[in-house]
Amino acid sequence: MSHDAPVDAERYLERIGFTRPILSNRETLDELIRLHAANIPFENATSFGQGPTPAGAIELDSILVASKLLGGKRGGYCFEHAKLLQHVLPAYGFPTRCALARVYQDPRHAPSAKTHVVTVTRIGHREFLTDPGYGGLTPTASLSLEELGKPQQTPHGRYRVVAAAAAGIDLGHAPDIDVMVQVELAKGPDSQWVNLYAIDLRGIANIDLPALNWFVSTSPMSMFTQILAVSLAPEGKRITLSNKTIRQREGEEITERAITSTPDLALALDSLGIDLPDQLLSGVASRLQLDRASRDDCVQEADTPDQFGDTFL
């Protein structure tokens, strides 16, 4: 660990459990992303628990993001994970820039708006996608943005980056995208490559992020104010909490159970590395209709798969 690294950068390594010497190469970058996805959860408890109001707005100040994601048992959504990476990776010789993506929650339908934020990291003259903040199917290693069409192995399955024209989509819906990130679902003869999100590699200025972040974290049109989405990717498994259902996938085996009470919710969140303040936990439980919570202003569990697909599940 460099003694010249900022305090937050050193806290980041401690938070994810990285103990080896840092070299500015892909092996190190892959290990950082693997440990990040295994130890810092994806979660939207603040926006969901507060509902579509200004109170649910997510702060993007670097110090506040680091305090939340590094200082306790909390995680964040894509804006926060990207902000954290862009705050700490340059301290270890990995220049970064920000880019926007359109999520394809159903590969057969038109994309969403450009509201997913990713980090593009450079090693020498090569660029890699580093995106531990995508949710249940987040890539747990870097993905080369130059090896188009080539399957790339991660600790949690194979991904590939293809040219937009090769993604099987109507480019008329999204003429500004450059590449599509795909994941391989199933294996063997039943395997298929599924579109996850399409990236506009031109990048975006940091000054433009707060307005997008405000919409995504507070608008009633945003999925993040409508469903609870939490995920973590420890070694060999993925654990997700979608509204009142917690699932674990380990290899081909999937187990799931329903959350039935506020204490049960707290235990489920704890298994995902999250400890919410009491008031926020109560807000999340209320919107999930747990215990004696009101049925007003709450989510309907049955709507989640149809509306949002399996992207975060």
TrEMBL record:
- Mind telling me which SUPFAM superfamilies this protein's record contains? Cysteine proteinases (SSF54001)
Superkingdom of source: Bacteria
Question: Recorded GO terms, molecular function?
Answer: acetyltransferase activity
Entries under PANTHER family matching the protein: ARYLAMINE N-ACETYLTRANSFERASE 4-RELATED, N-HYDROXYARYLAMINE O-ACETYLTRANSFERASE
Entry similarity comment? Belongs to the arylamine N-acetyltransferase family.
Instruction: Name it.
Output: Arylamine N-acetyltransferase
Organism encoding this protein: Mycobacteroides immunogenum
Lineage runs: Bacteria, Bacillati, Actinomycetota, Actinomycetes, Mycobacteriales
